[in-house]
Amino acid sequence: MSMRAVDLLESLRIAEAEPAHPRMPLGHHGADACLKGGLLMGALHEIFAAETGSEGAASGFAAGLAARVAQKRKLLWIRQDYSSLEFGELSATGLLELGLAPQRVLLLRMPDVTSALRAAGDALSCAALGAVIIEIPGAQKKLDLVTSRRLTLAASRKGVSAFLLRFAAEPDASSAETRWAIAPARSSAKEDDWGFARFDARLTRNRHGATGHWIMEWNSDEQSFGQSFGAAHSGAVVSVSGDGPARKTA
């Protein structure tokens, strides 16, 4: 049986098993139109760093999506130890800048991808959580179509949204509802710009609608995304951390 036929069968099985879940408007008219009203809750969504150096932007975008769908409930962020070493620790100050109170974020560190995926499956069965972010860097054979289907079904059963955050990785066969490629975008040149985070967001996969490409601005006060107006600032986009990723030594 071809891979395309397998994908089709998996999609049909997932569709049969999924209960109806609401959609959460993101606040960005273009994105919400493609998403037919908003991001489907109780589903699996993938967020990729578009390029090396975009990991911070991808993390911020994932945090924004998770905060939006979770509303007042807590979030669980699952990270591998390797991800912390390679891409840096999560910053409580950074979460506050996004309008997300650090006490709402539960951080779980795991030694490897197998442990991280097992923990994610367990966490998605807890209806008290609003969302689960699963941060997994690098190419991973364990992240195949079957694994993504398991995460999709687990998210659907209790209505807990799952966000698979990927760094230094290429998209593969998946049952995810949406897939995003995220890079940082320049801030506005307006004098009254309060420094809201901006994202160069490409919706590259959408199981139930169209795809698109937008500059999306996260309003930390309103906890929503919006259109970005005005000319881009003439300065450079925020650079990679001074430490940079860990490099292999001879």
Would you spell out the secondary-structure blueprint of this structure?
Elements: H1 3-17, E1 23-24, H2 29-34, E2 39-40, E3 44-49, H3 55-70, E4 74-80, H4 81-87, H5 92-97, E5 105-110, H6 113-123, E6 129-137, H7 145-158, E7 161-167, E8 178-184, E9 197-206, E10 212-219, E11 224-227
Parallel strand pairs: 3-7, 3-8, 4-5, 4-6, 6-7
Antiparallel strand pairs: 1-2, 8-9, 9-10, 10-11
Helix pairs in contact: 1-7, 6-7
Annotation keywords:
250 residues, alpha/beta, Rossmann fold, nine-stranded mixed sheet, 7 helices, 11 strands, globular
CATH architecture: 3-Layer(aba) Sandwich
Multimer state:
single chain
| Structure classification | alpha/beta
| E-strand count | 11
Domain count, please report it.
1
Look at the structure and give the CATH class.
Answer: Alpha Beta
Q: Largest sheet, if any?
A: 9 strands, mixed
Annotated CATH homologous superfamily: P-loop containing nucleotide triphosphate hydrolases
Low-pLDDT runs of 5+ residues are: 230-250
The dominant shape is globular
The number of helical segments is 7
CATH T-level fold name: Rossmann fold
Structure description:
Helices cover 30% and strands 27% of the residues. With 250 residues, the chain is an alpha/beta fold. It has a single domain, classed as P-loop containing nucleotide triphosphate hydrolases (Rossmann fold, 3-Layer(aba) Sandwich). A 9-stranded mixed sheet has the order 5-4-6-7-3-8-9-10-11, sandwiched between helices. A two-stranded antiparallel ribbon has the order 1-2. Strand 9 and strand 10 form a beta hairpin.
